[in-house]
Amino acid sequence: MIHPTAIVHAAARLAEDVEVGPYAVIDGPAEIGPGCRIEAHAQLAGRVVLGAGTVVGRGAVIGGEPQDTGYDPATESSVVIGEKNIIREHVTIHRGSKPGSVTRVGDGNFIMVGAHLGHDVELGDGNILANACLLAGHVRVGSRTFIGGGAVFHQFIRIGDSCVVQGNGSFGKDIPHFCAAMRTNRVTGLNVVGLRRQGFTAAERAELKEMFRLLFCSGRNLTQAVSLARGREWSGPALRMLEFVEHPGKRGVCAWRGGPGGED
Predict the structure, then answer these.
(1) Number of domains within the chain
(2) Which of 62, 49, 45, 47 is nearest to 15 (CA)?
(3) For residues 43 and 22, what is the distance between their CA atoms, to the nearest angstrom?
(4) Catalytic one among 120, 125, 161, 174?
(5) pLDDT band at 36 (very low <50, low <70, confident <90, very high)
(6) Which of 119, 124, 125, 194 is catalytic?
(7) 202, pLDDT greater than 50
(8) What share of the chain is helix, strand, coil (3-state, %, to 5)?
(9) 142 inside domain
(10) Strand blocks (E) in 115-212
(11) Are 184 and 171 in contact (CB under 8 A)?
């Protein structure tokens, strides 16, 4: 089901039931799985893999060259997208920046209008990225995280699992698993509503609250707080939060600033 105005590269491989809309362009050796839909004016450039049931919205561009001044256009890199993703209008996802590198999107993500995933981004499963949020190169996002519209993220940072990030926030440091984040590099507590909805038990949530208070609200620096936490026994999610902050990226971890007057 390919519209007569669409352009499909001879090296592209499409499952029999793929839909390609008017004026769409598949320019390269793409692999498009069953049940995918490429809407009008969308473009797939270079080596792009789409898993089954993924929808690419109108005017989206998947697989464009990285916005990296050191990028060599002869580089062979790719974008690999999993199953049942919804990629809305005018989303841009750039391919990897080094030979053999991959920008990777998992399964079941909802990426809303105008969002951008830079080169070498890794996005897990079941995330929601609202309109116009911007992820620079090498950003890593876990799974089941919600990112509000217009939020922006510096290159090489990590965003954990089951987080919620306020729209229009600006982040240049890691956001640990299960946290709520806002403003500039600020965590405000746990994603309490999200944790309940995702089936975390009362005991798990209570232990996470204790871990959060110890790491961020105890008046100790992060190294001291981690050392203290390591002297106790923790289970499941709380241990994962501890391990996340114990090995921060080179830009560090977002801090807590409490109270209504807590400014960035």
Answers:
(1) 2
(2) 49
(3) 11
(4) 120
(5) very high
(6) 119
(7) yes
(8) 15, 30, 55
(9) yes
(10) 116-117, 122-123, 128-129, 134-135, 140-141, 146-147, 152-153, 158-159, 164-165, 170-171, 179-182, 186-190
(11) yes
Of the listed ranges 19-23, 38-42, 188-192, 247-251, the least confidently predicted one is 247-251
10's CB contacts (< 8 A; 6+ apart) are none
Residue pair 103/79 in contact (Cβ under 8 Å)? The answer is yes
Say which residue the tokens 């921060």 belong to.
Answer: 248
> Is the domain of 136 the same as that of 63?
yes
Both structure tokens of 1: 């089901």
Q: Which amino acid type is present at position 245?
A: V
Q: Is 264 a catalytic residue?
A: no
Dihedral sign (CA 195, 196, 201, 207): positive
- The model's confidence at residue 257, banded by pLDDT at 50, 70 and 90, is confident
**What letter does residue 34 receive in the DSSP assignment?**
T
Residues 152 and 56 grouped into a single domain: yes
Instruction: Give the tokens for residue 25.
Output: 């362009």
Give me the catalytic one of 137, 148, 169, 194. Answer: 137
Q: What is the pTM of this model?
A: 0.95
Q: Is 137 a catalytic residue?
A: yes
| Residue 12 near residue 47 (C-beta atoms within 8 A) | no
Known catalytic membership, residue 259: no
72 touches 95 (CB < 8 A)? no
Q: Which domain holds residue 31?
A: 7-156
Percent of the chain beyond pLDDT 90?
A: 95
Is position 51 within any domain? yes
What is the three-class DSSP state of 193?
helix
